[in-house]
């Protein structure tokens, strides 16, 4: 029998990436040069937020999506943090509420006025202090309003109930810095990757580790839940230092279902999963390309589709929620690409080519909307509920009726599980000690330079005084 290649029929085989024209990009933005492995960008249907380079403290821009083109250098910023901003995330249920975390150990909640910022914003509606070190990640719960997760360099994940403005749970099972957090569809499970080379599946309310994988051959960096398929996908590095992805069964992390090497580049691979189309997008930090695959329920599980290529390297990528896409153009995904060298934010639309201009129901199934399924008290009591779905057929134009009300707070000690989080500080890591050492060396050099400049100035003044005394007029 002659060999024949196996062809898969897929409605997404011809998906292509379309870059927005220059007038629909955001130009002139001083994108942060921080090397922290995050996207530094967050998008929703109304606003684009980008972490910017700033002298002293940390700041980020919030720009209405329709305000494209060149952004003025004096455009208003959110600049209330005392340290560099490391992560920002929009509330999935209230479109003008954004959370940020920083090197100053705080998590802050900001309320953006209608139409965007008119002046610099320094006062957050809520300041959350519970971490003893800088905070690298924030994530909103996918189905519950006002539940926020934060991960700090103190190796702890805190669960905040924003109705009371306090941490209500603490996940303390990690032995090193947490690199990534991802929720399953109903938010009943949390997957984390850690610098200790372990992948964990955690029940967040109890903090119990349900599954744990020690990834020696596949050093994990990023993890994402693949919708309701009970599978996880991780990106990382193989033992030969090649970039690699692995697929896991969430109920058995003993061995990955498949491992696939991508290439030999060194940049971190960011995974993005679209549960509606079962498509996986892989974008490398410092790369210009975005690969995309289709996830199946049977072997080989992962089918390569195509690759979007661009010469400009990306520092990070923001992703538009489903209800913000252009369904009339058959747009199934949209990235906002950060190009640091040009100070440019470039929208990239992933489009399914269709001749018909009618609504394509097969590529736009019911999708999670902007209504929360649970209140914080319900979720904390143990209730799980799938997200409330909505149709994109008529185009999504409704604004959320939920309003954020910040609780009144007094500064005091933060006690969770009988531990005062602000007093219980873990030992510093080697990298932190080195960073402190180099900062002190830089400060010593700066002080020495100032002293030498002052010495030179003193000598100049002494010489001028001497010349003045020896001048003929004085004689």
Descriptive notes:
- By secondary structure, the chain is mainly beta.
- The chain has two domains: 16-390, YVTN repeat-like/Quinoprotein amine dehydrogenase (Methylamine Dehydrogenase, Chain H); 416-467.
- It is built from two helices and 34 strands.
- It has helices at residues 376-380, 430-469; strands at residues 16-19, 26-27, 41-43, 47-52, 58-64, 69-70, 78-81, 85-90, 97-102, 106-111, 126-129, 135-140, 147-152, 157-161, 166-171, 178-183, 190-194, 198-203, 208-214, 218-225, 231-238, 243-249, 258-263, 269-274, 279-284, 290-295, 302-308, 317-319, 331-339, 344-351, 367-368, 389-390, 415-416, 419-420.
- Strands 1, 2, 6, 28, 29 and 30 form a six-stranded mixed sheet that branches. It has a four-stranded antiparallel sheet with strand order 3-4-5-7, with no helix packed on it. It has a four-stranded antiparallel sheet with strand order 8-9-10-11, with no helix packed on it.
- It is globular, with a radius of gyration of 25 Å.
- 38% of the residues are buried.
- The model is unreliable at 1-7 (pLDDT under 50).
**What structural category characterises the helix and strand content?**
mainly beta
Low-confidence region ranges: 1-7
Number of strands: 34
Number of contiguous helices: 2
Main CATH class of the largest domain: Mainly Beta
Helix content estimate = under 10%
- Shape descriptor: globular
